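Example protein was shown:

_____
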Amino acid sequence: MAQLEYLKELKDVPDTDTPTLRRVRQSKTYPLWRVSHPYRSGIAIRLIVWFPPEKPPVVVLFANDKAVMGDVFYDSVGARADQIIDAYLRSEGGESV
């Protein structure tokens, strides 16, 4: 819940990494960000977020056990997020990239 609250309180689209919000370097089509929490042994929850122009942020992926998945999660995050964002844009009547 704290991660969602953090996103809700953002005033602008980020332009630099912070301890809580970092760019997903593996994204190809859309700029993605990951929201992370303070370190807890054995737990790694990630929200992958896209900031559409002039709209609230959209959570496009959620990893509830990234600690076990490791880098496999990030290896495919860009392709999976692109598909979800394209579907979101179609559902909103917009065009995907």
Q: What stands out?
A: Strands lie at 21-23, 32-35, 46-50, 58-63. The chain has one domain: 2-91.
